Amino acid sequence: MVARVLGLLGLLTSVVATLMLTLVALKFFPTLPGCGPESGCDKVTSGIWGSIPWIGWPVSFIGLCYFTSMLVIWLRGGLSRYYLWIMRLGMLCSVGFVVIMISEQALCKWCLVSHVGNLVAWSCAEFLLWGTREPRLPGALRNHWLIRRGGRDGEVVRTGDPVGGLTFVALTLVLVVALAVQNSRERARNAEGLLANQSEIAAGTTDQAAISRLKARNVIGPEDAAVQVVLFTDYQCPDCKKTEKLLATIQGEREDMSIAIKHYPYCTECNDRAFRTAHPNACWAARAAEAAGIIGGPEGFERMHNWLFDRGGSFTQVQLAQGLAELGFDPQQFLEIMTSDEVLEDVRADAEDGYQLGLFYTPMMFINGVEFKWYYGGGDINNVRKTVNIAAESGGRSVRPTERNQKLFDDWKYGRNRSTAGNRLEPWRGEGPVEVVIFGDYQHQSARQAEQILKDLQAKGHEFKYAWRHAPWESRGESPWLVVDSKNLARGVEAARELGGEEARWRAHDWAITNGGRMSQEDIAKGIAQAAGLPAAEVFATMSSPKIKNKLQRDEQDKKRTWRSHNPVILIDQRHVPRWKDPGIDSQGFIEALILSASEEPMSSGPG
């Protein structure tokens, strides 16, 4: 009996874990607790082991169908030696996936839970059925033996229950339909955005202010082409490589298209605007491309450009020497130019141009001066081909991009609706038609700055209301704030709301945002209780209640659904505010422009 219960619990655990992973794959949730960007979960589910090659079927779908069908068999008492062999195969798959996670140093917590549940269920099945091997007996005795040895609980061992297979097939069909519906909705949204983007390219509003930002030293194809594509790229960026090959294919189909290459290496050695070094060889790759262009002109640049992308931007000194010989460059001359200060400054100048045009991730593509928004389907060669045709048919208008502030404004203005149901349940400070939501951490300086900006704007007479939702889940890094204390501050503020209502909650909020550092949970409870006029003992007890825990979990999920990374996250009029703290931006002026736009629709222009 114990083995049956343990096996049941193991399969239930596996079903729940794979169900959650399946809901993420279907985009019901952006991610799961403990599975943020670049986490083990993200690497496994988004990597080569997360889906079936060629068909793109998520592995979590197979896991859900398998575990659910085995659970149905277990509940029906239909476990047999036939299904035991299937469970053994499933066990080997689980072991294999665990080995892969360990070798890849990518631990997916939810995947691990599902595999542990599977191993528990398999162990229990072996225990229940290991002694049911049929002896060679006459017919009557054999039937008597089967009834007596039909399992340790005495039931007959079935040779195969079709319900298990039917469950697998039925659930697979449900997932096929669900995935098709989700993909259809995503395609419809992308098609709408792409159509608007193509209309921009066809209309070609001229803005001379940023014309110099798209001038490039290295152009592949005719410089006076009717369709001029400018690509900001990083030779170690996989998406850049895909985009470059896609553009090269389209360029090979026509004679009126050029591709200008500008560098934006995600490496702080040559790009002061890179927030971290994600691609350690990207600077040297960019410098190699520049050196090839100086020595060999457009043809020399193109040869090196292709060589670098073929290698993913990575090379050793030996490999570079071999490559230079193959490409026909003099090694000594090449290295002298490649390591020169002039080449370094050229790469830095490109990166600065990209930054001022609003680049945040590579690749960034402009077609006849208008940004092609790749997230609306830029990975589909037919979408890009059609857009290039539209640009060619527009008569080669001289269209230019906007400067960085205007682009960031447009990114917000035409961004997707990021509202969540949880926003409506929050208390609001201030009144007005515009809603502002901050997902913040009480000990995060940027979150404090964001709220102070909102207070200052309200003091200036702007009519809007704002809500504060909790997001104390960011990695500490070099910051002085501590996650555990931030969580306790958030719990204390919500406890004040539970005990004293919205007014008490805002008083507790004001205390929390001005008090930080190392504090015990008891000290936080006392401080909040004093600020909100509540009994400290009740605040302390309520901080650990399941209701408060659920509230913070909902905030966490809604924050990730809104924007996965960075703290704080700001929403204005249900749209995400991009990079409001970037160097060179007047943060208060930028947020003020967005609030004015939201309250004065339609607005003809953004910030200057």
Please tell me about this protein's structure.
It is a single chain. With 608 residues, the protein is of the alpha+beta class. It has 3 domains: 2-178, de novo design (two linked rop proteins), CATH 1.20.1440; 207-402, Glutaredoxin, CATH 3.40.30.10; 421-599, Glutaredoxin (3-Layer(aba) Sandwich). The chain has helices at residues 2-25, 40-46, 59-76, 81-104, 109-129, 139-148, 162-203, 238-251, 282-310, 317-327, 331-338, 341-356, 381-393, 404-413, 445-459, 483-514, 521-532, 536-543, 546-562, 587-599; strands spanning 218-220, 227-233, 257-263, 364-367, 370-372, 434-440, 464-470, 569-572, 575-576. The strands form 2 sheets. Strands 1-3-2-4-5 form a 5-stranded mixed sheet. A 4-stranded mixed sheet has the order 7-6-8-9. The N and C termini lie far apart (73 Å). Residues 132-159, 397-401, 476-481 and 602-608 have low confidence and may be disordered.
Write the layout of secondary structure elements.
Blueprint: H1 2-25, H2 40-46, H3 59-76, H4 81-104, H5 109-129, H6 139-148, H7 162-203, E1 218-220, E2 227-233, H8 238-251, E3 257-263, H9 282-310, H10 317-327, H11 331-338, H12 341-356, E4 364-367, E5 370-372, H13 381-393, H14 404-413, E6 434-440, H15 445-459, E7 464-470, H16 483-514, H17 521-532, H18 536-543, H19 546-562, E8 569-572, E9 575-576, H20 587-599
Parallel strand pairs: 2-3, 6-7
Antiparallel strand pairs: 1-3, 2-4, 4-5, 6-8, 8-9
